[in-house]
């Protein structure tokens, strides 16, 4: 069975079950971005600021986000961004998510050209949870 971290990053991919444990076994640093409370570009940038542990000087624009995702000084050579509750965000905000995906996929391609790996993993809440 092929595991996501055994292959090169390839666009937005479904997160494996227990991605943090699998990532640790492959020396992949994982940062989590939660889209549950994202409703505009400002709250999107704040979600990345918090999730990536950025300083308040983060520019909060597409170029700044690209720079952060591709910066070899601040990002490990093998890293994954876990996009939590992204499907719902994408449905509610198609234009904003299209802009974000363009930036993330460009960053992923730039990382690959530099011999680095940037996985973009989609993690959704369990839809089959039991209701008691």
From TrEMBL:
User: Family assignment?
Assistant: Belongs to the barstar family.
- Name listed for the protein in its UniProt record: Nuclease inhibitor
Q: Which InterPro entries match?
A: Barstar (IPR000468), Barstar-like_sf (IPR035905)
Identify the residues that the record assigns to the Barstar (barnase inhibitor) domain, covering every copy. Answer: 29-122
Q: A Pfam family matched by this chain, by name?
A: Barstar
Natural source organism:
Deinococcus koreensis
